[in-house]
Each structure stands twice: as structure tokens, then as C-alpha cells.
Amino acid sequence: MNPRPPQNQRLLPAVERVLNVAEVVELCRRHGRGVVTGWTRAILDDMRNGRAGELPEDASAIIHNVVRGLGEAARRDASARLRRVINGTGVVIHTNLGRAPLAAAAAQAMAEAASCTNLEVDLVSGRRGRRGAAAEALCREITGAEAALVVNNCAAATFLTLQTLAAGREAIISRGQLVEIGGSYRLPDVFAQAGVVLREVGTTNRTRLSDYEAAIGEHTAALLRVHPSNYRITGFSEEAAIAELVELAHAHRLPAIDDVGSGCLYDLTRFGLPDESIVGNSVRTGADLVLFSGDKLLGGPQCGIVVGRAELVEKLRSNPLARAVRVDKLSLAALETTLEIHRAGRAFAEIPVLRQLSLPADEIRNTAERLVARLRAASPPSVTFSVQAVESAPGGGALAGQTLASWGIAVETAHSERVAEQLRLGTPAVMPRLNEGCVLVDLRTVLPEDEEPLLRRLLECQAH
User: Fold this and answer.
1) At residue 273, what are phi and psi to the nearest 5 degrees?
2) Helix axes 310-318, 154-166, angle to 10 degrees
3) What's the gap between Cα 234 and its chain centre?
4) Could you give the angle at which helices 329-343 and 133-143 cross, rounded to 10 degrees?
5) Residue 21 and residue 27: Cα distance in Å, rounded?
6) Can you give the pTM of this predicted structure?
7) Beta bridge partners of 268
8) Phi, psi at residue 387, to the nearest 5°?
9) How much is the mean pLDDT over the chain?
């Protein structure tokens, strides 16, 4: 049943009259007159057809409601675009929030690269240079590999490697490593699209070296190990170590490919975290190609990195598909700077992901107590802020199943969902989590420079 048209339609203003209101003129300047005109017509149409409820009896009140509706339309439009978000979820590498936040120096490098750069120019000779040469040199230096290639993500690195080295032949992989990650990315589908025959061996929980050996035949092109990403098999389980796979592959003159996923460069067990595949260890073990992401534990921009034997890396580089998956100049600038920070030994001080993963819980608690004291001093007695123990998570397909003791700010309110929405829609946006009627902001994932904006946003939401 259609809503009844309002009785006082004659009070509805003309579109042009709305566009001449001072606030709307400013909206036109920011968003474009055509866009705001479209929003205005949609709002007036809703009013005309009764979809906006009862109309006020006063023409100026109707215009006020139209202008308010235009403000809401502008906020919805802005919230759909990429914008800064303060991560209060406690998930360090949050895929939906863009994974690794960049180091300040890497973000600055991206800003500088937005202008003209020496992307493919050798400034010494003035001749054409090779895209990514500096980043690849840093990858070689840090990992000890002969050669490196940077592409736009690790899925592209996997596809390019399989298509280059094994198209029309078989690649052997453990059944327990046939992963599906975000966005319905399934490894068997990658094999199929690359034209590679998937030869799975072992069982979901146990794959022995003898399983790989029994599967090697005249059509075998490579042995492949894949990081399990965001799950772990525990209990009655077994898998072949990369050193064993390398020895077996080389005995049959086959390449051993190790997809280590997270791009970990360090032993993280000193921070109470579980053992994670380290890129340099795979290289030193003799893996012919090692694949990993740039935006997980490496702490850089989204990209995929392949390091290993120069002969094989050059084959990947020569594949016409390499151009289709090449990385852009902004990502290269951020990656170079991130790698320079690793090389200089400043990673745990400057790269947010590593700093957040290694933060002691006591230090986070001290921050929480300091910030809550300020919130209590600035808010009315009806608003309750408290320090609360919480659990953080590494996230992003790294250190699966692991949690970290942390502390956060709890906002006790009868309208927790509304407060959470206000936090998400404000500027800067704040992404909290909800727990038993409380709005929680886990401070492990709040950058130091975001503390003041976070306090302001929490106080703003309580004022409404």
C-alpha cells in the first residue's frame, strides 16, 4: 500500500530555492551543483509522496528538513569513500581496514611519489631504468636471496609463479594447504586459471615427505608449500618441513616453492607469539622461490614479493603477465622506505604492525588509565568511562588463533549501537567493537598520533 501524499504539498520549496540556501551553496561548492541537485530532488520526491512522514505546517521548517537531509546525504556519500579510520578493534592487521598501517616515513614517501618520480629513469645516466629496481635490491639485501620481483599482491605472485614454471604440468601440494582466504580466493582455482594440474598429496591433517616423493612423476614441474594463512591444524597432525621438501625437489631437479604468506622477517617468539615462517630462513634453507605479502608482518603497502634464484625470478619477470600484475609507483615508494627501516634495525620502533604486536600489556594499561582519567574529567557524571582488560588479535592471515592481552576504553551506555555508529560516521571515523552493552576501544591498535582525535570523538558522541 502506497503512503498517502501529504496534504500541504503546496509548501514544498522549488529546487532552486533550496540550492540558494547558504549551507546548500557550500555543499554545492564541495560536491558539485549537479550532485546536490539530485539529492535535493530525491528528498523532495520522498516528501511529496509521503515517504518522509508528516510535513511541518511551516514552509521554513520544511526547508530546514530538506537542508538537514542534504547534510545526511553528504555524510553518507563521504562514508562510502576511502577515509581515515582509527582502529579500535584490537585486530592489528585488519583486512577490512586496509591491513598494515604504514610507517610515517613510508606514508611521506607515498605523498612525494604522487608527483613525477624517477620510476623508470636512471638519474645518473639519464637513460631508461627498471621499475622497482631499488625495492628489489633492498629485498635481496634483507633476505639474502639472489634476485627479487615485486608485484601487486601475493595472490598475483602465486599465479605468476605457477603459470610461468608449471603451466601444462603438475605442481604437488599438501591437501592441508589448499586454502581459501578472504574474497573467496581459493588456491585450487588459482591452479586451474594458471593452467597447472593440481596434484594434492597426504590428508588434511597429515602429509609426510613420502607422500610427495610417491607423487613425483614425468609431469611434475614443482613442489609447493603454502602458508595456512588464517587457520592452523593442531593435535594429531604432521607436515614436511621446507628443508625436507627442498632436498627432495633438488634430488629430482625440481624447484621448491615456499609461499610463506605473512612476510615475517623476525623471530616473534620473544614476544610470546607462536613461531612463524621467516622469509630469510626459507631462502637460507634453499627454497628456489619464496613468496610473501608486503602488507602483513612486513608492515608495508599491499604488494607481493618473490625472492629466490636469479634464473627463476628472471623467468617470472619475462612473462608477459608480469606487466599485468606490476606494482604502481606509490606502493613502490612505500615499500622502499619500509624496507629501509627494516635494514636500519628500526622496525619495532617505527613500523606500526610490529610495534603493536610487541607492545607489553602493562604499557597499554598505563595509556588506557591516562586517557580514561582525561575523559572522566571532561564528561558529565552520567557518562561512564572505564579501563577494561581485552584480548587483541594479530589478524590478516598471520599468527592464526593467537590472542594478545590488552587494555581498552569501555563506554557504558544504554545506546551502545548508536554510539558505535556515531563513532564510525564522524571525522575521523573510529571503528570500535561492542561487548555486552559496552562500546570498547582496544588501545593496542590505536596509533599514538590518534590518541587526541580519539578523545575528541568519544566526547563528541557522548554530547549527542
Assistant:
1) -95, 155
2) 100
3) 27
4) 30
5) 10
6) 0.87
7) none
8) -90, 130
9) 91
Q: Counting every residue, how long is the chain?
A: 464
120, 129 Cβ separation under 8 angstroms: yes
What's phi and psi for 268, nearest 5 deg?
-95, 0
Grid cell at residue 394: 594479530
* Pair 289, 305: CB distance under 8 Å: no
Q: Which three cell numbers stand for residue 464?
A: 549527542
ω into residue 428 within 30 of 0, thus cis?
A: yes
Pairing of strands 289-293, 429-431: unpaired
Cα radius of gyration rounded to whole Å, the chain? 27
What pLDDT is stored for residue 464 in this prediction? 52
36: phi then psi, degrees, rounded to nearest 5: -65, -35
Written as nine digits, the cell of 362 is 602493562
State the pLDDT confidence band at 236, using cuts at 50, 70 and 90.
low
Phi, psi of 385 (to 5 degrees): -110, 140
- Identify the H or E element spanning 289: strand 289-293
Query: Residue 390 is placed in which grid cell?
Result: 581485552
The bridge status of strand 289-293 relative to strand 147-151 is unpaired
pLDDT at 111: 97
Task: Please compute the mean of the pLDDT values over residues 410-436 and round it to a whole number.
Answer: 90
Give dist(CA 6, CA 404) in Å, integer: 57
Backbone CA torsion sign across 258, 264, 265, 269 = negative
Q: Are 86 and 426 in contact (CB under 8 A)?
A: no
The pLDDT tens digits of the residues spanning 259-316 come to 998 999 999 988 888 778 899 999 999 999 999 999 999 999 999 999 999 999 999 9
DSSP string, 67-91: HHHHHHHHHHHHHTS---EEE-SSB
Task: List all residues 6 or more positions away from 140 whose beta carbon is below 8 Å from its beta carbon.
Answer: 146, 147, 148, 307
Cα 456 to Cα 89, 237, 274, 352, 380, distances in angstroms: 18, 50, 37, 22, 14
